[in-house]
Amino acid sequence: MSALPGIIMSLPFTLHPQILKDSIGIGDLPLSHVRLMNDATYPWLLLMPRRAVASEIIDLDEADRVQLMAEIAQVSQVLKALTGCDKLNVASLGNVVPQLHVHVIARFRGDATWPKPVWGQVPAVAYMEDAASNLISQLRIKLSIS
Q1: pLDDT tens by residue, 37-79
Q2: Structural domains counted in the chain
Q3: Which DSSP category does 128 fall into?
């Protein structure tokens, strides 16, 4: 097991094709690549730690786990401040996409699926280009991503 962190660090990081298909790139935090889900129904961010073979949070070494939690908190605070949401849903599922990724979803009482989970409830509605660009610009500023 002690060799695993070295292996993880040496393999190249690539995004799962489903994540690339379903989301729009925002940029990188110290550990995680951040993306906006292309579903205007909910302000919904993804964080993918840039570690090639990690599929679970426990696959990260201790320093990376601490960094991931800090980044989840940072992204959550920014998303809540920008949206004024009623609740944040934070989850790491990976049942469909095995690559480690964390969902941070702004939820509103009265949104399309409140209070149910967002998955599989209503079809995704792609962002209009201007709306996505505006949100991404605000997120980059607040997250200090260039």
Answers
A1: 999 999 999 999 999 889 999 999 999 999 999 999 999 999 9
A2: 1
A3: P
- Computed over its alpha carbons, how large is the radius of gyration of the chain? 15
Average pLDDT, the chain: 92
Distance, CA of 40 to CA of 120 (rounded, Å): 15
Nearest to 136 by CA among 51, 40, 50: 40
CA-CA-CA-CA dihedral for 83, 88, 93, 94, to nearest 10? 10
Q: Which two tokens stand for residue 84?
A: 């004024």
Residue 132 contacts residue 24 (beta carbons within 8 Å): yes
Give the bridge partners for 24, in sequence order. Answer: 36
Parallel/antiparallel/unpaired status of strands 87-91 and 44-49? unpaired
Cα–Cα distance, 14 to 4 (Å, whole number): 18
CATH number at residue 75: 3.30.428.10
Pair 67, 75: CB distance under 8 Å: no
Host domain of residue 81: 4-143
